[in-house]
Amino acid sequence: MDSEPTLHTSSATLANMAQQNARFAPSTRRPRSASITRSTAQYRTLATNYDATTPRIEFLRTQAHQLLSLRPGDTVLDVGCGTGKSLPALSRAVGPTGRVIAIEPCAEMMRFARARVRELSLSNVDLIEAPAAALCEAIETDSIDAVLMMFTHDVLQSSAALDHLLAVAKNGARFVLAGGKLFSGALSLLNPWVEWRQKPYCTTFENYDAPWRKLFDTQALSATCVHPRYMGIAYIAHAVRAK
Ligand SMILES: C[S@@+](CC[C@H](N)C(=O)[O-])C[C@H]1O[C@@H](n2cnc3c(N)ncnc32)[C@H](O)[C@@H]1O
């Protein structure tokens, strides 16, 4: 008669575990496509606390800026600039003869970027409130020397956005991408948790095992290179536009 209570207890435990797993489980097996409408809504709620809640990405930001190899007079594009955290460093690196163009579709995130530009008098920074897939309407083709994509997974999964980025980049333009990704190997057991943690920041998990894949598969870049970071839960990648 002891077995019945034990059985009940273990069913309850199993149900509890299933509930916990469901909490971390990805919402769909087949990744949804990136959605600018959902992304803008998500970042509307994240904007106020974005800088305070993302200190861990600063180490990657410094590395990404170095990999851009900016020179005075360069024009650099900050894609999905968010609250503009990269703008002061980019502005300094290209100097008064250079230009920083920052594109961001979420008005609330852009409000913080605008305030930063104003407060720090970053006179060589131009802000464009639009998605990356509108770049060609806003700037000339073949006009960009370097492209920064810092934690912009949705943009990397949008073929339309990538077409525009590749069109505005000059031959030889440096592309630097940094962001989160899924673990591989034994640590991939933790991937449901990774997706759960990252859900507020992206609207698709397409290619989240290799976020650079869609861009690099276009064959429009040369010297492609990927460095895993933080035990493989993040990466920095770089490449050169070849036209
Ligand atoms: C995780 S935040 C990163 C912000 C900034 N790059 C940084 O390093 O702090 C991602 C940003 O990408 C923007 N974004 C999402 N979809 C986009 C699109 N299609 N085109 C341009 N930016 C986009 C979001 O609005 C958000 O501000």
Describe the structure.
The chain is of the alpha/beta class and 243 residues long. It has one domain (30-241): Vaccinia Virus protein VP39 (Rossmann fold). The protein contains eleven helices and seven strands. It has helices at 3-24, 36-46, 50-53, 58-67, 87-94, 107-119, 135-138, 153-156, 159-168, 191-198, 213-217; strands spanning 75-79, 99-103, 125-128, 144-150, 169-180, 221-229, 234-241. A seven-stranded mixed β-sheet has the order 3-2-1-4-5-7-6. β6 and β7 form a beta hairpin. The chain is globular. The chain starts with a helix and ends with a strand.
Bin the helical content: 40-55%
- The H/E string reads HHHHEHEHEHEHHEHHEE
Radius of gyration: 20 Å
* CATH structural class: Alpha Beta
> What is the first-to-last residue Cα distance?
77 Å
Give the amount of beta strand, in percent: 15-25%
Topology-level CATH name: Rossmann fold
Low-pLDDT residue intervals, each spanning 5 or more residues = 1-18
Summarize the structure.
This protein is of the alpha/beta class and 243 residues long. Helices cover 41% and strands 21% of the residues. It is built from 11 helices and 7 strands.
